[in-house]
Fold Alpha/beta hydrolase.
Amino acid sequence: MKPKTIILCILTLFCAGNLKAQTRVLDTLINVGTYNLHFHIIKGKGLPILFESGGGDGGAVWDSITTLLHKRLGATLITYDRPGFGKSGLDTNKVGVVNDIEGLEVGLTKLGFDKKLFMVAHSLGGSYTMVFSARHPGLIKGAVFIDTSTPCYVTPKKSEEVLASYATKMDSFKRELPGVYYLLKSYAETGLRAAEAAPKAKMPITVIGSDVPPFKSSDNLAWKNCLRLFANERPNRKYILAKNTHHYVFFDDPLLVAREIVILYNKVRYK
């Protein structure tokens, strides 16, 4: 086991005991119109942090890092399952990034988290965060993007290639993993919506790129270059290469990710 992993395990066990004694956790299903959206909230104070998972992941993917972050910040931490994932329902007549975000908006409003937010996004969650922020100028005070997709990388051509690579699995996805099926079917639309929204993402952003992106070809270089390009597009963005990490940077180097979230959060929390 890696030293950083051992440290995380120790911290997680320590923090878990403190969480039970010092915090309240809300695990709930919120009706957002035609389906229920599952939220898991560690209650705290100050600017709430909303986590946006990558494609194919539910909110539980953040469990270790939220435990670590709550100990350091004491903030309210909000994770949720995107429609069709985890405990969330799915309306197959209302799919795609815009419909998904509309459901998220309803859920956050019902929970009382529709004023100011800090966001942490991973992979495809970066596209969702850009679309969400464009719909609510000024709502998101800052964000940390962890090895996220970018408009530079997710072009219409790349979207076609991604969908083609899953062509033989789509029928089984539709039967067994409908969330994945509709996410892939909407992949091109998500890329286009994110490209439209990206210029409006004016909040401070820390971009953390992995050392080894999630591909096995020259796409690795394109992914890394596009992340750097995205970070350099505005003066209030910062790029960090997380050495010796893979796509799930917050698994491989949780202390780095937590540190960068804390740094940016403390800069914007009172704005």
Strands lie at 25-31, 36-42, 49-52, 77-80, 117-122, 140-146, 205-210, 237-242.
